[in-house]
Design brief:
globular, 26% helix, 12 helices, 448 residues, alpha/beta, nine-stranded mixed β-sheet, eight-stranded mixed β-sheet, 23% strand, 21 strands
Length: 448
């Protein structure tokens, strides 16, 4: 099986755009897989990054893409009015789980925040297991460091006063599914010790690659659910990226896509809120020039039916779409590379500077920030928000803050036909995206 870091990025080199993602690939038998992570780089090698963020016009001229700042995101998601009311995520904690982490995550967040006139925040780093010393020449580590950077900076954009805890794991586990037991152990420890109100996971593994799947034995996945069951009991919200493979996803080699519709875990778990991807179309101030589309450029928002989990009760209202299976995603945020976010990193001394990144690993921490705002507004953890989400969506009212994505674009990818964004719930963007000013109070008010 493979564990993929769900993300796509445009690394701004001196003359070309480089696209980056990281996949952990299994090379040994499933009983004791060996995992090796390498960036799936298209175009120029990650070498030199831009010294300062470019304007949207400059991005269009250089790389034929749109690139957005956090200030544009704040306008696009109607966040500024919430901040003026004091809803900033204060008193809430976002837990981000990534392998290896980044040795420069605090410095990079400070630089990022200063660039855009934002207050920074303290990032607490928790090392889980024997995390090796960071080696900037190790592509496995730099891939995950890029993910950590993206996760932290995007969560901070939305919830600037929330505390951020980065849990670093070592990806050395070999009991059936490489890396995942370590991650789940780390999450359960955080939950049991009261650390975190929302957990953001920007990783996933295709359901089909788990041991026993081909024989209809899903025990290898079910045995990993203990952290989510714990979170459900203790009212901690758990999020996971829906993936960047559209209606398909990667095989165990971490490079080849299935030629059929598949899904990935933990996104497919009913105890997890699955976060899909959209493409924003903004002017320089962050106002929409047209409605959001499905993320589908250098990757595509993951979505479809789970082959492991049956339809949960919170999706009974959309059973005509999901059938008898659990459907993903549940909700979506910005993820397209054409319309990606500027991020800053310095963990690789040969490639310090600014990149444009995207993927559902961008969307997930963005939504983690939204949940932190809602938790603050409520004065307590909201916990599993699934029923609230689908109940709000069923009202079909602008007052709920759920914004339908229904422009007919789709998440077809790698030759596998996906799903279109249509009226109401769909397997491309879930219930849609959010207008935070309305969504946060509506989510708080809705009964669980």
């Amino acid at each position: 099986m493979q564990i993929a870091r769900t993300g796509r990025g445009v690394a701004a080199a001196t003359s070309v755009a480089a696209l980056a993602a990281t996949a952990l690939t299994a090379a040994a038998p499933a009983a004791a897989p060996h995992t090796l992570a390498v960036p799936a780089v298209v175009g120029h090698t990650l070498a030199h990054r831009v010294s300062s963020p470019l304007s949207n016009t400059q991005c269009q001229a250089k790389w034929q893409i749109n690139c957005y700042t956090p200030l544009q995101y704040r306008t696009a998601y109607d966040l500024n009015a919430l901040y003026r009311k004091g809803v900033t995520g204060k008193g809430r904690t976002i837990v981000i789980v990534d392998s290896y982490g980044s040795p420069t995550v605090q410095h990079d967040l400070d630089v990022y925040s200063k660039q855009f006139g934002l207050p920074s925040t303290k990032v607490k780093v928790v090392k889980w297991g024997h995390v090796p010393a960071f080696d900037p020449k190790n592509s496995d580590m730099t891939g995950w460091a890029g993910e950590t950077t993206l996760d932290v900076e995007m969560a901070h954009v939305v919830a600037p006063a929330a505390k951020i805890v980065v849990v670093e794991t070592a990806v050395s586990e070999t009991e059936g599914t490489t890396g995942l037991p370590e991650m789940m152990d780390a999450e359960k420890y955080m939950i049991d010790h009261g650390v975190g109100d929302v957990i953001s996971q920007s990783f996933g593994a295709t359901e089909n690659t788990f041991p026993g799947f081909a024989k209809g034995d899903f025990s290898s996945i079910r045995k990993l659910r203990y952290a989510f069951q714990d979170a459900n009991r203790k009212k901690v919200t758990v999020l996971a990226a829906s993936g960047d493979g559209g209606a398909t996803d990667l095989q165990a080699d971490g490079k080849t896509y299935y030629k059929k519709r598949v899904n990935s875990w933990p996104s497919s778990d009913p105890l997890v809120t699955s976060v899909g991807g959209t493409q924003l179309h903004l002017d320089d101030k962050g106002n929409r020039v047209k409605p959001d589309s499905v993320y589908n450029d250098y990757g595509s928002g993951g979505g479809g039916q789970s082959h492991v989990f049956t339809r949960p009760s919170f999706q009974n209202g959309v059973k005509k779409v999901v059938g008898t299976r659990r459907g993903t995603p549940d909700i979506s945020m910005s993820a397209a590379v054409n319309g990606g976010a500027w991020i800053y990193s310095s963990f690789d001394p040969t490639a310090t500077g600014w990149d444009v990144s995207g993927g559902t690993s961008e969307a997930t921490p963005l939504f983690a920030g939204i949940v932190a705002l809602a938790d603050q507004a409520a004065g307590h953890r909201l916990g599993n928000i699934q029923k609230r989400l689908y109940d709000l969506s069923s009202y079909r009212s602008k007052g709920t803050g759920i914004v339908d994505v229904n422009d007919g674009t789709d998440n077809s990818y790698q030759g596998v036909t996906g799903y279109k964004a249509v009226n109401g719930y769909d397997l491309a963007t879930g219930v849609g995206t959010v207008d935070a000013l309305r969504f946060v109070p509506a989510l708080v008010k809705e009964k669980p």
